[in-house]
Amino acid sequence: MTALLQIKGLGAGYGRADVLHAADLAVAEGGVTALLGANGAGKTTTLRAICGLIRRSGSIRFGGAALEELSTEDIARLGIAHVPEGRGTFQRMTVAENLNLGAMSRRDTGQIKADMTKVYDYFPILEERRAQVAGLLSGGEQQMLAIGRALMLRPRLILLDEPSFGLAPLVVRNLFAILTRVRREENVAMLIVEQNAALALALADVAYLLETGRVVLSGAAGAFAQNERVRSAYLGA
Ligand code: ATP
Questions:
Q1: Cα atoms found within 13 Å of the Cα of residue 217, Cβ hemisphere only
Q2: 166-223, pLDDT tens digit by residue?
Q3: Closest Cα to atom 30 of ligand 1
Q4: Hey, whose CA ends up nearest to atom 22 of ligand 1?
Q5: Residues 183/122, Cβ–Cβ less than 8 Å
Q6: Residue 195: half-sphere exposure toward Cβ, Cα within 13 Å
C-alpha cells in the first residue's frame, strides 16, 4: 500500500514545551490508522501538528506535498479534513449551513449538492434536523454533523479526534457502524485518535501507540489487539 500521509521525525509543542519527539507515522491511501495512548500522550497534538495549527518540525508528506511548509487553509484545500476534539461545529448556525461551510474551500461547486445528499444518506437525522441550529443537537448528532461537515470537503484524509467522547455506548456503536460504511464506500483515509481502543482497532488496519510523545509500538491493528501491553493498558483485558 502506498502511504498517503507519511510523517517522519515529527516534533511539536506549545510555546517552549515539546510534546512530540521524533514520531514516525503513516496512513495508507484509503486506509484507516488508529493512534492510541493514555491521556496526555500527545494524540491530539499529533493531529494539530498535521493541520499546521501548532509549531512543528520534521517531515509531513501528503501525496506529493510537504505539509510543513503550508498554512492550515492550504492543508485543508489539499484534502485533509480535521474533526477536532469537541467537534467544532458552529452552534448558532443550522445543520445545513454547517455542512455548506465544510465545502467552502472547494472549487468543484457543481458536486456540492450531490455530496450533501450523500451526507444525509449516511446521517438521516441530519436531514431531519437540517433547519435546526447545531447548538440544539444532541452530542451524538453534533458528532455526526462534524463528520458530515468533514465529508463535505471531499477529503482524501479525515483526522478524527475522539469521536466517541462523551457519547452513550449505543450512539457510539451506531457512529462507528457509519464510519465503517464511509470507509467502505468512499475512497477516504482516516487517522483516528480514540480512548475506545477496541472500537478504533476494529475500524483500523494499522495502529500506533504513543507514550509521552513517542511512538512505542506500531503494527497491524489485528496484531495490536492481541498485544499484551495494549490489552492490559487499553483493552481492559
Ligand atoms: P487526551 O486523551 O487527554 O486528549 P492526548 O494524547 O490527546 O490526551 P494532548 O492533548 O496531545 O494529549 O496533550 C499532550 C500534552 O500537551 C499534555 O501534556 C498537555 O497538557 C499539553 N497540551 C495540550 N494542549 C496544550 C496547549 N494548548 N497549551 C499547552 N500545552 C498543551
A1: 18
A2: 899 999 999 999 999 999 999 899 999 998 899 999 999 999 999 999 999 999 999 9
A3: 14
A4: 14
A5: no
A6: 11
